[in-house]
Amino acid sequence: MSHYAFRRPESMIADPQEFEPIIRSQKYLHLALCKENRPYLVTMNYAYDAQENSFYFHCASRGKKVDYLQANPLVWGEIIQDLGYLPGDCNHAYRSIQFEGKAEFLSNAADKKRALELLIEQLEPEPEKVKARLLTEKAIQKVSIVRVRVEYMSGKRNPVQEDGV
Question: SS3 of 145, please?
Fold first, then answer.
């Protein structure tokens, strides 16, 4: 896997420890898929497991996203932390994470349950109540969960500031 060097290295987020706060602060990621040389971009909510270095999302058991992932499990993803337009500078402040990975459908009930717990914890202000209500054996069996194992991750910020934002 070959990656381009940053054209403006000062904009690179070089410390991987800065990735997780950006990932945790957002609710959606954009995932680029490709099948038979046809691109497809999806936006979805997600969970991230730092120990596994993996993203998780749920989806229907059939459909365009599933067809694309089954045909080609290699994906490219992006998470953007929008820090706002900078009036008078004709510029926009942001931090972003991009990643390359391989998607796989989970079949093990324990793995699916853990992924759903992570999703609920990422999205819900009171996750325990939601977990108690939604994480039934039947629901876990029924849902499709995808894990994207990250193979490469990079970060970028604009504009570059002394305070690290």
Answer: strand
